[in-house]
Design goal:
GO molecular function: phosphoglucomutase activity
Radius of gyration: 20 Å
CATH topology of the largest domain: Alpha-D-Glucose-1,6-Bisphosphate, Chain A, domain 3
Order of helices and strands: EHEEHEEHHEHEHEEEHHEHEHE
CATH class of the largest domain: Alpha Beta
Number of domains: 3
Pfam family, one: PGM_PMM_III
InterPro entries: A-D-PHexomutase_a/b/a-I (IPR005844), A-D-PHexomutase_a/b/a-I/II/III (IPR016055), A-D-PHexomutase_a/b/a-II (IPR005845), A-D-PHexomutase_a/b/a-III (IPR005846), Alpha-D-phosphohexomutase_SF (IPR005841), PGM (IPR045244)
Keywords: Phosphoprotein
Structural class: alpha/beta
Family: Belongs to the phosphohexose mutase family.
Length: about 300
């Protein structure tokens, strides 16, 4: 490896990693995450590997990595390599490997991801919804995971939502002492705020930003299956799909058939997969799927 691209301050959501992999045509990406599990020194920790298409590694790649890992007898570290993760730009180092120099590039991942979203959604319409005469008040809980900077920058700074629309936006190593699992058990701050009736839309994200929960006014819970179906039924509101068309839908086996009913009306095929995002990647790579989701609140 001769070049690393890292998010400023070490902040990178899973969707942003996928975006950057495709943007710079990287061989892959590594995400260090506790996902929706407890974090911190006494918590859990995992490694996710994304391949060149921006999606999770397929079984054949994961199996190969595992087989190679069993043959490792030693590893080398470079404790004197000091990388300033807060400073945007390229830093170069002279290491004892075949790449001269070794490059580390620190990027503003929030800005890169924001530009991608601009190419997909109608920002003017969303901004008018959040700030216009018939505005809807929203409440978004980042659960002290990686999504805080994205929520602040995109919804508040870019789209004009009031600052109090976003809560728990400071990334903490232990996520504030609770699992960053976006459900009714752990997203209690969001649930209580929504039950008051002041907000018309609420959402919570897990630690690395690839799961969410949706709440309606008065705390009305929208389950993952219905959320996916509602998005599918309203794709005509998203400019990207108006331009590119909708080729098909995908859902995991445990996800309800609500999506199937929408697809039947729209005359669009639905593909049922085993649980695991890597199966959706196969459908997307083959050009058969434009929107997919699973029972654990992952949608893309």
């Amino acid at each position: 490896i001769g070049r690393l691209v890292i998010g400023q301050n070490g902040i990178l959501s899973t969707p942003a990693v996928s975006c950057i992999i495709r943007k710079i045509k990287a061989a892959g990406g590594i995400i260090l995450t506790a996902s929706h599990s407890p974090g911190g020194p006494g918590g859990e920790f995992g490694v996710k590997f994304e391949v060149a298409n921006g999606g999770p590694a397929p079984d054949i790649v994961s199996d190969k990595i595992y087989q190679i890992s069993k043959t490792l007898e030693e590893y080398a570290i470079c404790p004197d390599l000091r990388v300033d993760l807060s400073r945007l730009g390229r830093q170069e180092f002279d290491l004892e490997n075949k790449f001269k120099p070794f490059r580390v590039e620190i990027v503003d991942s929030v800005d890169i991801y924001l530009n991608l979203l601009r190419s997909i959604f109608d920002f003017n319409a969303i901004r008018n919804l959040l700030t216009g005469p018939n505005q809807i008040k929203i409440r978004i809980d980042a659960m002290n995971g990686v999504m805080g900077p994205y929520v602040r920058r995109i919804l508040c700074d870019e789209l004009g939502a009031p600052a109090n629309s976003a809560i728990n936006c400071i990334p903490l190593e232990d996520f504030g002492g609770q699992p960053p699992d976006p459900n009714l058990t752990y997203a209690t701050a969001l649930l209580e705020a929504m039950r008051g009736g002041e907000y018309g839309f609420g959402a919570a994200f897990d630690a690395d930003g690839d799961r969410y929960m949706i709440l309606g006014q008065n705390g009305f819970f929208v389950n993952a299956s219905d959320s996916l179906a509602i998005i599918a039924a309203n794709l005509s509101c998203i400019p990207y799909f108006c331009q590119m068309g909708v080729r098909g839908f995908g859902r995991s086996m445990p996800t309800s058939t609500a999506l199937d009913k929408v697809a039947k009306v729209m005359k669009i095929p639905v593909y049922e997969t085993p649980t695991g995002w890597r199966y959706f990647s196969n459908l997307m790579d083959s050009g058969r799927c434009s929107l997919c989701g699973e029972e654990s609140f992952g949608t893309g």
